[in-house]
Every structure is written in C-alpha cells, then in structure tokens.
Amino acid sequence: MTLTQLRYLVAIADSGLNITLAAERVHATQPGLSKQLKQLEDELGFQLFIRKGKSLDAVTHAGRHVLERARTILAEAANIRSIAANLRNEARGELRIATTHTQARFALPVAIGALAQSYPQVSVHLQPGRDTEVLAQLEAGRVDLAVISSAGAPPASGIALPAYRWHRVIVAPQDHPLVSDGQPPSLDELALLPLVSYESSLKADSSLRRAFDAADLRPQIAMTAGDADLIKTYVRAGLGVGVLAEMAMLESDTDLRTLPVDHLFPQCTTWIVLRRESVLREYVLEFITQFAPHLDRRDVVRALASDTPPTEWSAVPHWRERPAIPQADVA
What we know:
Blueprint: H1 3-14, H2 19-25, H3 30-44, E1 49-52, E2 55-59, H4 61-87, E3 93-99, H5 101-107, H6 109-118, E4 122-128, H7 131-139, E5 145-150, E6 159-166, E7 168-173, H8 177-181, H9 187-191, E8 194-198, H10 207-214, E9 220-225, H11 228-236, E10 241-245, E11 256-260, E12 268-274, H12 282-291, H13 297-305, H14 327-330
Parallel strand pairs: 3-4, 3-5, 8-9, 8-10
Antiparallel strand pairs: 1-2, 5-12, 6-12, 7-10, 7-11
Helix pairs in contact: 1-2, 1-3, 1-4, 2-3, 6-12
C-alpha cells in the first residue's frame, strides 16, 4: 500500500467514481490509475468499488471504511510535509482557496496581492463556486482553506475564523422610484418589486427569505445569479432591483444607486474555514493575517490544535471599517 494508491482512491471517490476525471485531477493516466487501484484491492483482499461493466457504480461497505482512513492518512502526510517545509524556512508552494465569486472578486484581491509581495514564489489558486461546493472542496482536502459567508452561526465543518462582518444593500438604477423616494426601503415595498439576488436566495433557509417570512411577506425573486457583477448587469437591464453584498459595489458603478438596508436583513459574517488539526504553512498564516489582521496567528495555531476552539472572537471589523480596495485591483 502506498500514499499514491490512497491518493488515487480518494480522487476516484471525489470525482463521482469517474476514472477519467480522477486521473486528470491527480495528473495520471487512466490505465495507470486503474492499475494502482487493482493492486490496492489485491493487497487488501476485497473490492473497494462495485463495478457495472467497465465502470465503477458505487463504493462498497468496506471501501467506505478504507476511504475514511485514507483521507486521515493523506491529511497527516500533508501535515508532515508542512512541518518539514516550515522547519526548512521554505518560501515556495501553493495556496489553494475555495470561495464564492463575490469574495474572490471583491474581498480577496488586496490580501492576495500582499501575499505575493511577501511570498513571490507562492502561487495562489482560487476555486470559486457555490456555498455548498466551497465547503465540500475543503472537506475533501482539495484546498487549503475556504472563505465563505453566513448570516447566522459559523460553518459547522472545520475551524471557522471570522474575517469581517457586512450587510446586504439594495441596488437600483438612478431613476428608480425607490431612489427618488429618498427614504430607506421597507420590506413591504421590496415585496412588491421583482428582485435580482444570489442563488442562495432560493433556499428555504436563506436569511433573506426568513426576513420576509417573519413579516408574513413573499419576495418576488425574478432572477438569481452566483456572480454579483451579473446581478448588477441585470439590474441595469431592468429585470428588477438587486439584493447583494455591500462589498460588491464599486466607485465605478455610478449608474446605480446603493440603498442601505441594515434595518431589514441580518448582518452577515465572512469566515476563513480551515481543516481541523491541519498544520499551516507560514505563507497560509501570512495570508490570514493580511485578510483578517485582527486574528493573531498564535491564536489561529492554538485554535487548530485545540479540541474546543473558541466560539467567540473579539474585535471583528465591519467591511466599512476596512481599507478601500483600489479599483485597478478588482478590474
């Protein structure tokens, strides 16, 4: 049994049992991956997957147990490599971040730019996706950390560090009646208007939907998108008023008017989520420091090593208290 075989096994499981996709993800050939899988099964004395013809159809009961242990072994092997690299003061490597489109586009550029100045030999790989995809990538070990937001409790998986707090805003064309009214909009007014918002707004547990439900109102979601720029595009096209994260509004959006709705929707928190008991490379800690300066790196390391990480972090800033992002950095 080798680490390579275990890595291939996990890749197959995380690729939906698609051998071709798994081979691409681990930079192997399909025949080579299949050969390593067969050798592993021969050594163990049982099949890890149920086969249907030449395809894999499901993970066997025994295979699920082996997969669970394989993930643990691979995570510990990665920790050992991180320890060794830190002891060698190695300043090169990769930082893989799973996050949403809004965070990637509007919140992360300054921190990533600062990291590039301190660690020019570290390459950063962003993997934007939906909220559920982001945490799944972290749990599968395909990324080093996740950056994700919630309106309530922190994400249940991993160690969640609060980066900053923020609110939603309403966005409308300059000539929209909401703008000319000059008053903060009410939920009753918004319930009468078509809304353009994030895909998460369709979920029953969406904090936006809960706010309307609490007032016994039903929002008219005319369109959803995973990208804040798309939301603004379709607001400009007249499909409705936008509901989006405040950091997605730029000084260059002069044709749109931003209306604060702090009084209508709950405050959100953007979290940095790490795998439990992971050993971080020094440049990962540097990125966390740049993105969330209020988080002391020693506290971060202690939180990862603790069985009961802190549930409260003090002095979490609001987005409006952070330095402005230069327009060139997000263009």
